[in-house]
Amino acid sequence: MVKINENYLKLKAGYLFPEISKRVNTYTQANKNSDVIKLGIGDVTEPLPKACINAMSKALNEMGTTKGFKGYGPEQGYGWLREKISENDFISRGCQITPEEIFVSDGSKCDSSNILDILGNDNLIAVTDPVYPVYVDSNVMTGRTGETLQNGTYKGLLYLAINEDNNFLPEIPQNKVDIVYLCFPNNPTGATITKHELKKWVDYANDNKSLILFDAAYEAFIQDKDIPHSIYEIDGAKNCAIEFRSFSKNAGFTGVRCAYTVIPKGLSGQNSKGDKVDLWPLWNRRQCTKFNGVSYVVQRGAEAVYSFQGKKEVNSLIDFYMENAKIMKSKLSTAGFIVYGGDNAPYVWVKTPSGKTSWDFFDYLLEKANVVGTPGSGFGLAGEGYFRLSAFNSRLNVINAMERIINI
Ligand code: MLT
Fold first, then answer.
1. CATH class for the domain made up of 6-47+311-406
2. Second label for 340, Cα 20 to 30 Å away, from 55, 190, 223, 315?
3. CATH dotted code for 53-308
4. Residue burial 133-169, b: 16+ Cβ < 10 Å; e: rest
5. Distance 70 CA to ligand 1 centre (A)
6. 3-state SS class at 154
7. How far, in Å, CA of 246 to CA of 9, rounded?
8. pLDDT of residue 134
């Protein structure tokens, strides 16, 4: 009989968000009159920017003509999109990222898992706790961790707790780790990192020849001018960091699918003989073999994000969700909740009241307020006692959800 990948058996029952959906479905089946407001998964709710729609419609029409038809595109993404990304997301911020260093893809979730394909199995890996579960699960699936411990953590991973005591900033490990995942603005806590603090990580990585996997999927939500949008704003980062970016949350592409990953030329690892090996050709090779690129139509949609109209529309989407976050934060704080995040990120990180566990609070809110959030413990052990609320919803739903929570 075929042998399975037993690493999958180490995984906790289900991925967090489908698990939440399952519980919500069970509840709504049993309570047919319930009117549930979902502030759980960070999925956008507002329509796509018109600039993107127009660009995609035009591209689709082109595809319907003999002259405009396109088959397979470049595995790395079309040059015109990579140029716009380089110019707008990096050069304009003083980061020397060339179009060639940008690989367009169908999502940061996939890229942040797939990157493991080009990295050795015996690296010591550090993640924050709480953390976006994909980083942990993808390491478990590929056999980079040991067994599950009783507390739900995995042997072999180094967990860096982020909590009120350290302002939700992971402390730099005393010893050398090979790979560290950093996500800022942070999912799930909504915390941010200053240039000064990020520089410490870049210096640590360069001193220890470590690799930082930097997830900047939420950079567009940064309001404070001093907070870096890219790790490449930090000197030395091109020698130690890969960055993941996404069109999902800024332009509402969660259902359209487009993202990109930056692999700087000259960023290297080593082989078992200790020789330096560049990562760019490995990732390029991986993409050419396993990926056929993002559709032409979608890439034209992503390109439109950088047009004058696109920028205007994306900014108003960001403003809309950040106003939601502001309302959530202010209503909950006034009602006595201890609330973090929400200032530069679309997530509000709430301390569960009266010592309730995260899942108890989940059940409590679902039953008493018909509001869905994400239990902090779903993001890791140190997330216990917290609850994440997403600002991605209509204004009315956000206001109603807050009123319901406050009036339980
Ligand atoms: C989340 O809710 O944490 C995000 O939606 C997950 C994701 O972007 O994959």
1. alpha beta
2. 315
3. 3.40.640.10
4. bbbbbbbbbeebbeeeeeeebbeebebbbbbeeeebb
5. 32
6. strand
7. 30
8. 96
Query: Ligand 1, from 20, 43, 44, 128: best to mutate by most atoms within 8 Å of Cβ?
Result: 43
Query: Given this model, what pLDDT does residue 14 score?
Result: 75
> For residue 19, what pLDDT is reported?
85
Range with lowest mean pLDDT among 17-21, 263-267, 294-298: 17-21
- What's the 365 CA to ligand 1 centre distance in angstroms? 20
Best residue among 15, 16, 17, 189 to mutate for probing ligand 1's pocket (most ligand atoms within 8 Å of CB) is 17
Tokens of 87: 């110019």
* Atom from ligand 1 closest to the CA of residue 254: 8
pTM of the complete model beyond 0.70: yes
Cis amide leading into 130 (omega within 30): yes
What residue's CA is closest to ligand 1, atom 9?
109
Domain ranges of the chain: 6-47+311-406, 53-308
Structure tokens at 378: 């779903």
Region 32-60 average pLDDT: 97
